[in-house]
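Reopening: structure tokens for the manganese (II) ion complex, inputs below.
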Amino acid sequence: MTQPIFAAQPYAGIATFGRVPFATDAVGADVAILGVPYDGSVSYRSGTRFGPRAIREQSLLLWGYNNAQQVAPFTSQKVVDLGDVDVVPPDIRATHHQIELAASRVLAAGAKLLTLGGDHSISLPLLRSHAQKHGPVAVIHFDAHPDTWDSEYPGQPYSHGTPFKRAIEEGLIDVEAYVQLGIRGPTAGPQDYADALALGARMITLDEFRRRSLDDVLQEVRARVGSRPTYVTLDIDVVDPAFAPGTGTPEVGGLTSYEMLQLVRGLRGLNLVGFDLVEVSPPFDHANITSILAANLAFEFLSL
Ligand code: MN
Ligand code: MN
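Re-run output (same inputs, fresh job):
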């Protein structure tokens, strides 16, 4: 890999993710990083449009070797940073179209995609691209919220509360192998969870996770997805706001950052085809806690 000019100090130079080369396409790459600075569909606090930039900034302190996974993900494979998708702030459909085009280009080049959001609505076009390549994919969905509402706003099928309902309707997810983990918090009513279950999701609430061991939960998740092509989507609000305050719809009583790292590491060896990490909102972050965690989680994804 070509060494960038300003590689010496973490605080110097231009921030691509982990200082990997910037590229305009993913040809010849194993993994491409793509930012989606879009927060047009959130239901409460905005600011995730600043997520990709903040995560890249904090990624500069990733020294390169992952001791837990015993791999140097920036040198054992070719990783490039494609910059950000050209989003269309007032138009979610146009934005989703742009995301799908960008993602499909990466997959057609034979690279895997790691996307940094952005709000959770972006998972829908990403799943469209991945399902087009692999067929309906298994999905491991870390989140405080099921995101399976039919609609958050009258007549609006697309928002950050609906992507997995739409994805299931569009046949993008193999529902036998759709696992939600970390779900918790108050909802509008009992129907929110019932709706997710009716769609076929295996919902592991935070309460259930707490009652069981992390290894036991991982074993179930791994057994459920098996050898299927598996897409991982991580909404940072699955982590407790004490560890990840910089997000739009925080829910108390979540995972610790260490548990989140262990859960991602526990996906090693699965047939993983794509990742996204969403809902990091830097304006609500403190001391970059959330974007530092997000950068490390993306590093764990790359290490898988
Ligand atoms: Mn959420
Ligand atoms: Mn979400």
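The two ends are 20 Å apart (CA to CA). Residues 92-108 form the longest helix (17 residues). Marking as resolved unless the reporter disagrees.
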